[in-house]
UniProtKB/TrEMBL annotation:
Listed name of the protein: Prostaglandin E synthase 2-like
Domain GST C-terminal as annotated: residue spans: 82-196
Species the sequence originates in: Labrus bergylta (ballan wrasse)
GO cellular component annotations of the record: mitochondrion
Matches recorded under SUPFAM superfamilies: GST C-terminal domain-like
Sequence intervals crossing the membrane: none
Lineage: Eukaryota, Metazoa, Chordata, Craniata, Vertebrata
Molecular functions (GO terms): prostaglandin-E synthase activity
Amino acid sequence: MSEILLCYPEVKSENDSGKKVTEYFNKYWLMLSEAESAALYPEKGMQKEEMKWRQWADDWLVHLVSPNVYRTTGEALASFDYIVREGKFGTYEGFFAKYVGAAAMFIISKRLKSRYNLQDDVRQDLYKAVNDWVTAIGKKKKFMGGDNPNLADLAVFGVLRVMEGLQAFDDMMENTKVKPWYRRMERAALNHEGRK
C-alpha cells in the first residue's frame, strides 16, 4: 500500500480564502500500462473525458445535493423523516435526529448555496448540471463509457442516487433528460456491468 500511495503525492497549500487544503494531483488518474490503457480507452480522449467528469462530480455535482435536498424546511423534515425511517432509529433518537438534524441541515444548505454561488432556485442549478451531463454523453452512447458504464458514470450515479426517495430526486427526474441514463445505470449496477 505504501508504494501505491507514492503515486498520489500529497500537496498542501492555501486556497483563495486562506484556508489550508490538501490536494492529491493524481487522484483521478488510473495507473495503467499502455496496453491496459489502450484496451480500456480505445478512443482518443476517453480517459481524459472520464477524469474530467469524475472531478466534476466531486467538485460541483455533489455540492448541489444538500441545497436541493434541504431546500425548504418542509423538504428538510421530509428528508430526515426518510433518514430516520430507513435508519431504524429508536423513538427518542429518531425524534431528535429528525428535528435537530433537519434544522441543522437546512442552515448548512443555505451556507452551501452561498458558498457555491447557487441560484435562488437551487433546483435550476441541479437541472442544468444534470442536463450538461446528459448532453456530454450524447445521443449515440448509452453511457459516458460507451456501451458500458465507466468510472465517471459510476461517480455521477452515486451522487444522484443519494437523493432517491426525496422530492429533489423526483423533481430532477421529471424536469431533466437524465431518466433514461439513470435507469440504464440502475440496471448496470444491479448486474455488475461496466468496463472490465
